[in-house]
Here is the input.
Amino acid sequence: MKIKPKHKSYLVTKRLIDVVFALLGLIVLSPIFVIVFVILKIDSPKSSALFEQQRIGKNGKPFHIYKFRSMVPNAEEILKADKVLYEKYVTSGYKLPTKEDPRITKLGSFLRRSTIDELPQFWNMLIGDMSLVGPRPIVAEELKEYGDQKDIFLSVRPGALGLWQASGRSLIEYPERTQIELEYVANAGFFYDISIVFRNVIAIFKSKGAY
Here is the structure.
């Protein structure tokens, strides 16, 4: 797959929108941040309200993504300790249905369905790790799914909203997810990004594939 270079005007405008949108999101939604933070601390006083995980960003640069915690503190250990469950996790596109995932708390289930758990990513957008629109940032293990097109996938900044989420999110597994993410990279542009934002808003309200 050959990707045409993006116009500088598009890249500059996209970054400006990211910064403005992130600032507005952090300011306007600050009451929700405080409420969710307090509820999470009441629910589990000894655990952090934020979940931090290393993901792979533009040009293969690692960064830490932030979310409101929706899992028990030792989530990774629980998953990897169950070999059958971990195999299903990998073959299902590095996702598990909420009802089958022993790591997710009851409060976390609500945060995921409502996508509130993703709100801290406004900070990732502000500092430039992520964009409003782009392929969903993945863990290093998932890079193998992109094979020799890995560099194409990593040629753009990962996004909070993307074509994969708009198309069905967790309902779509690899290798179809790979094709969808690369489709975005090939067609990324100002009006294309706007259409993806609207499609994501609809998907969020429908809770489509949100687990």
Q: What stands out?
A: The longest strand covers residues 50-56. The two ends are 31 Å apart (CA to CA).
